[in-house]
Structures are given as structure tokens and as C-alpha cells.
Design a protein that fits this description.
alpha/beta; Beta Polymerase, domain 2; about 15% strand; single chain; 4-stranded mixed β-sheet; about 40% helix; TIM Barrel; DNA polymerase, domain 1; 7-stranded parallel β-sheet; 16 strands
Length: about 575
């Protein structure tokens, strides 16, 4: 639409991803290796860069090591238009199906080149070739690799139909900018319910349908709908269904547009029983239209208690919502955070001060342990050095206490990767699996049970090891591990990183007596913002405040950790 003031928003994450993918495509095409390394250098520079992103964009990336004049211009254009020209030029030289193979776990540029040369140029072609035993003979593959790639490719095929929650929220933010002055937007569907992954993007719009339609037509034709108040279109990688509501119908619109299918089927069955008809336009009894400015009117008419949006999943049907669910403002301490000692972007001082600014009274540093060499894990000498720095900072800083923690790798046999005399020096320990994901279910279960039974293990970190839409959880008996943790008094982590959200909130619904910690696993001060995703997950899992340990005082948490290790 001519005259539109819509502005593309490019985040730091978008820029890092574009630079890295550009380097990968250069490697795939066999281009000059120094050119690929230049993009990799720029990628690392941005990833490690602290400071205000908007200010950096505003000054055109001047002064960033590894980003020259031309690349700075490309990044500025990316911010303005949403197109990173070097990447778009390379994509034009590679079939779309081949580009899509980069989403398969375990496939990098070199292996994808081998597949492409063999005529395997899409995800469906890859799956078929693996099923027909055509990958094993290829250079760099083999029977074992073929089986793993088939599993990863099938997972990718399923995952490709969904996106992460922050991506849906970001797309909605862009729509808000696009329709500014025309409509007020709010999330519907899975996004409103804070589901961890999103299929279609449902949106509720309070505004004039004609003006909304006019603005949206600049993106793609809008197909006809049997429901005149619904607009369907494609935007920012999502299939969008937008419901145009009026002040009188917004309550009914929210009810219809936010419920999961099982929730709505249950509600509509109740409506039929009462002689009511519900649509996102109105609530009717016979020929009368009942004004529904709020959802409460719908629930009252259905003779149902009000159900918060996040409690409208199939798993919640028939479950009473707890009255004392944990709230964001009740969190007193950040646990499981990283610093520049291992693979974080900010110092302990910077991280602790940022936590204090958020209202935290204690901050637990948990850098990677010595087995995590890929993440610059801490040697025993480094651990002692860090302890000295923490003591110095605690003597200096006011209003926040830094706790000495570590994210200790769980080794294959279930033990932790420091001797007991070192483990005893930490205030608390997060024990996590970072390797050997393919053990049998029985072996993985025993490994985890041994780890949670270790008196030094305070918290079991990201218990299933999943990376949403990228890596499935490893196989283990979840209920057996939760029970072992309950018996041992080991806390279960709710990893708030939206790429993980692990443990899955569905398992929390049955874990009535386990203790949990909502941990950001932040590797930078910006990572603290993920806390809200963890709180959302905890609420969906029905977690009351008293079983969320980082709502406890510093003294209560430290006393608990100390008593646990003493048996």
C-alpha cells in the first residue's frame, strides 16, 4: 500500500543468523574460504558484542571489529528492508530444497554438498534416500550416519510445520506496527496460551475491517472466507487468521480465538445443552444477541467458572486450576546463569548487577564444568579463581548476593565431573547432560537417577535435553526420574530458554510433590528476559509458589542446598 509507514525490525539474532548462514552457503558453493571466514568473523563479533543493539544499528555498525564498510551497509539495508543482499544472492544459486537441508540436525555444508551432487536436493528426497539405503554408500556417511540422519530428517519434517513462541510474538509485533492507528491487536490461539511452539498465528483485531483489509492486501491476496469477520493471509512465515472484532463482540472473539480445539469442543457442547450459540461475532440464545464485551459474560452464560487463557489446553480439561500459581514478581533469585568464564557474553559483575536491576536479591553463577570443553568449561584452577572473584564482588556489591554454582556435566555413568572436595565448595550445583544423547532408555534413566541421587546435585538441569524443533528429547523414563528426584530432594529445572522450555509443563501436571526452579540459563544479560517464558510454563504446569525454589529467600535456598548434601 502506498504511503505505508511499516518498518522492518531486524534483531541482533536475525543479523547473527544471516551472517552464519551466508558463510555456510559460501562453503556449500565452494567459494573462496577467506570470504566465508570473513562472515564467520563478523558473526562471532556480533554474538560477543555487548551494549545497546538499537544504538549500534543507528550508527551503522561503525567500529565493530570484523565488519567493514560494505558489510555494514548490507546490515543497515537488512534492518531497513528485511533483506540481507549477500545471503539473497547466494540463495538464488542454490535450489530451495537444498537450502532446506541445513535444518536437518547433523548436516553441514560439506555433507549437504555430497547429497546435492548425488541428486538429493530436498527434505522429502533425503528421507526417501535414507529409507532406501542410498545414503550409506556416499562419502562421509555410512549405515550408522544414515539411520541418524533419517531420524533427524523425519523430526525436521514434522517440526517444519511449527515455529517457536518468540517468533510468533515477534510476527505479531510486526503486525502491530503495520496496523498502527487502524486496529488494536492481541494474540489468539497457541500464542495467547503461551504454547512452546506455534503452528498458525491467530490474531484478534479491534478495528475497522475495511481499513484492516486495505492495509493487509499489500502482503498477499486474502482468500474468501465463509466467516466475513475472519481474514486469512500469509505474513512473516506464518499463515495468519485475523478476527475483526467490535467492542461489543470482543469477549466472544477472545473466547473462540484463544481456546484449544478440545477446550472449545467441550464449551460448545455445553452451549448446545443450554440452547446457546457461540461464535467469534456474538453469543446468542434463540434470536437474541447477547452483547459480550468480556469473556466473563461467555463463561457465565455457559455456567462455567472462568478459565485463564493459558489453562485452556486439552491436558487441563477436568483439572481445577491452582489458586496460588507462581507469579513473575515472586521470583527472588536467578539460578543457572553463565558468564565470560565459560561461554557467556558478560562478566559476573555485569550479570549480577543486571539481575539486581530486575529486583533479584541473589544471583547464582553456573558456568560450564571442565568436561564441557566446547563451552570453555572451567578447570579446577579456574573454579578457584572464580570463587575468589565472587568473594571480592560480594564484599563490594550491595543489594545482591552472588552464589557459587556450577553447571556440572553428568557423565555417562551418572557421576559429576569434579571430585567431591571441589563439589563441596559450591553453594549449589546444577547437574546437566550435554553428551551421549543416544543411550538406551534404560541406560539414560539409570544415568539420570544416579545424578539426582547424588547429594551434591541441587538441581537437575534441562532434564530431557530437548531443543525445540531442532533436537528431540533423549529417551528415558520421565516418571521414574521425577520420583527419584522427589525422594532425594533434588530440584527439577524449568529451563526458561524458549529454545528448550525443559522440563515440559505437561509432566509437571503429574509431579505434585516435586520442587522446581525456573532458570533462564542466561548467557548474557539479555537472557534474563526469558524468565517470563519459564513462568508461563510453570503456570501451565500448575506450579504453586511454595514449590518454586527461586521464590524462596536466599537464606532458605542455601539452607536447603546445604541440608541436602548432608543427607
Amino acid at each position: 500500500m502506498a504511503g505505508s509507514s511499516y518498518t522492518v525490525i531486524m534483531t541482533k539474532k536475525d543479523a547473527i543468523k544471516a551472517l552464519g548462514f551466508t558463510a555456510s552457503l559460501l562453503e556449500l558453493l565452494g567459494e573462496n574460504e577467506f570470504r566465508a571466514k570473513a562472515y564467520q568473523t563478523a558473526e562471532r563479533a556480533l554474538d560477543n558484542l555487548a551494549g545497546d543493539w538499537d544504538a549500534l544499528v543507528a550508527k551503522g555498525f561503525v567500529g565493530v571489529r570484523g565488519i567493514g564498510t560494505q558489510l555494514a551497509a548490507n546490515l543497515s539495508e537488512f534492518h531497513a528492508t528485511g533483506k540481507f543482499v549477500p545471503l539473497e544472492e547466494l540463495k538464488a544459486l542454490v535450489p530451495n530444497g537444498v537450502v532446506g537441508l541445513f535444518r536437518v540436525r547433523g548436516l553441514g555444508a560439506k555433507k549437504i554438498r555430497v547429497l546435492w551432487d548425488a541428486g538429493i536436493d530436498s527434505l522429502p528426497a533425503l528421507i526417501m534416500a535414507a529409507r532406501e539405503n542410498k545414503l550409506a554408500p556416499l562419502k562421509g556417511f555410512g549405515a550408522g550416519s544414515q539411520a541418524k540422519i533419517l531420524e533427524a530428517a523425519e523430526f525436521t519434517a514434522t517440526a517444519s510445520e511449527r515455529r517457536l513462541l518468540p517468533e510468533a510474538e515477534f510476527a505479531l509485533e510486526k503486525l502491530v506496527v503495520l496496523l498502527e492507528g487502524i486496529a488494536i491487536l492481541e494474540a489468539g490461539g497457541s500464542t495467547a496460551r503461551h504454547l512452546e511452539t506455534i503452528g498458525d498465528l491467530d490474531v484478534i483485531a479491534l478495528g475497522d475491517k475495511t481499513k484492516i483489509l486495505e492495509r493487509l492486501q499489500i502482503f498477499s491476496p486474502l482468500p474468501d472466507s465463509q466467516y466475513p469477520h475472519l481474514l486469512a493471509f500469509h505474513f512473516d512465515g506464518f499463515d495468519v487468521q485475523l478476527c475483526c472484532a467490535t467492542p461489543e463482540s470482543i469477549g466472544a472473539a477472545r473466547f473462540i480465538m484463544t481456546g484449544s480445539k478440545p477446550f472449545l469442543e467441550s464449551a460448545l457442547a455445553k452451549a448446545t445443552e443450554l440452547g446457546l450459540t457461540i461464535s467469534s461475532e456474538n453469543l446468542t440464545r434463540s434470536s437474541d444477541v447477547i452483547a459480550t464485551p468480556t469473556e466473563q459474560v461467555v463463561f457465565a452464560a455457559l455456567e462455567m467458572p472462568f478459565v485463564p487463557t493459558f489453562w485452556r489446553e486439552a491436558e487441563h480439561l477436568g483439572r481445577a486450576i491452582p489458586t496460588d500459581l507462581v507469579q513473575f514478581e515472586q521470583i527472588q533469585g536467578m539460578l543457572h546463569c553463565h558468564s565470560t568464564y565459560s561461554d557467556g557474553s558478560h562478566s559476573i559483575r555485569e550479570m549480577s548487577l543486571a539481575a539486581k536491576a530486575l529486583g533479584m536479591t541473589y544471583f547464582g553463577i553456573c558456568d560450564h564444568s571442565r568436561s564441557a570443553f566446547y563451552a570453555n568449561g572451567l578447570s579446577i584452577a579456574k573454579v578457584r579463581e572464580q570463587w575468589q572473584e565472587i568473594d571480592t564482588l560480594n564484599a563490594e556489591l550491595e543489594g545482591i548476593t552472588i552464589l557459587k554454582g556450577i553447571e556440572s556435566d553428568i557423565l555417562t555413568d551418572g557421576s559429576l565431573d569434579y571430585p567431591d572436595e571441589i563439589l563441596a565448595g559450591f553453594d549449589f550445583i546444577v547437574a546437566s547432560i550435554h553428551s551421549q544423547f543416544t543411550l538406551s532408555s534404560a541406560a539414560q534413566t539409570q544415568r539420570l537417577i544416579k545424578a539426582v541421587q547424588n547429594p551434591f546435585t541441587t538441581i537437575l538441569g534441562h532434564p530431557s535435553g530437548r531443543l525445540l524443533l531442532r533436537r528431540p528429547p533423549y529417551e528415558f523414563d520421565v516418571q521414574a526420574v521425577l520420583e527419584a528426584a522427589r525422594m532425594a530432594g533434588t530440584i527439577i529445572e524449568i529451563n526458561a530458554n524458549p529454545n528448550r522450555l525443559d522440563i515440559d509443563w505437561r509432566f509437571m501436571l503429574e509431579a505434585k510433590d516435586n520442587l522446581f526452579a525456573i532458570n533462564t540459563d542466561a548467557h548474557s544479560t539479555a537472557g534474563f528476559a526469558d524468565l517470563r517464558y519459564g513462568v508461563h510454563a510453570a503456570q501451565k504446569g500448575g506450579l504453586p509458589t511454595n514449590r518454586c525454589v527461586n521464590t524462596w529467600s536466599k537464606e532458605a535456598f542455601l539452607e536447603f542446598a546445604q541440608q541436602k548434601r548432608q543427607g
